[in-house]
Amino acid sequence: MELVVATRNKDKLREIKVLLKGLAVEVFSLDSFKGAPEVIEDGKTLEENAVKKAIQVSEFLKKFAVADDSGLEVDFLNGDPGVYSARFSGKGATYKSNNKKLLRLLKDVPLAKRKACFKCVIAIADKGRIVGVAEGKCRGKIGFESKGKSGFGYDPVFIPDSYNKTFAEMGTSRKNKISHRSKALLKAKKIISKYPSLYQ
Predict the structure, then answer these.
(1) What is the pLDDT of residues 25-72, one digit of tens each?
(2) 24, 59, 67, 90: which could join 128 in a potential S-S bond, CB 3.0 to 4.6 Å?
(3) What is the spatial distance between Cα 113 and Cα 129, in angstroms, rounded to a whole number?
(4) Which residues are catalytic, by number?
């Protein structure tokens, strides 16, 4: 009945907990376990990082674990920041510094060329063995300035297709209906719900 989310990011954990509602599991983060490993995210893809985190955490804790790796791919920047999204602005990167760098790199770029795609990969592991991987995508564009106070990461600059507001302006409930993470977790929930050892 216990499920560990392989993260110490409180914003990400809060969002994942909401999206996992409906499963008969108690959700924990790495902060709940003394000595839980700090997994080095050195994979070349989001999937490599998610799988690595899920395997190492579930193996160390001997528990069922899910790991998320997400990234923003901007067409004009040839797919950057991608796998480096969290540390885009260098050592000590913050949400604000990452957004500032992104907007600076896209300065004077017209809206038609500011297309981007948010991607999320969820890896699910049991005691060191991968039992499933799920991916979600949300396409949109990068605005010209940060807007909104909800969400985290690149939410203040990402405007999903068919909308005229950023994720940060939408609010959590609306964002969670269309986001990359919600799409990935919807698939992950189906995998988890069919996995028998979690409920033994």
Answers:
(1) 889 999 999 888 889 999 999 999 999 999 999 999 999 999 999 999
(2) 59
(3) 41
(4) 69
How many whole angstroms separate alpha carbon 155 and alpha carbon 116? 12
CA distance 153 to 70: 10
Tokens of 131: 């039992």
| DSSP bridge partners of 118 | 72, 138
For residues 180 and 168, give the distance between their C-alpha atoms in angstroms, rounded to a whole number.
14
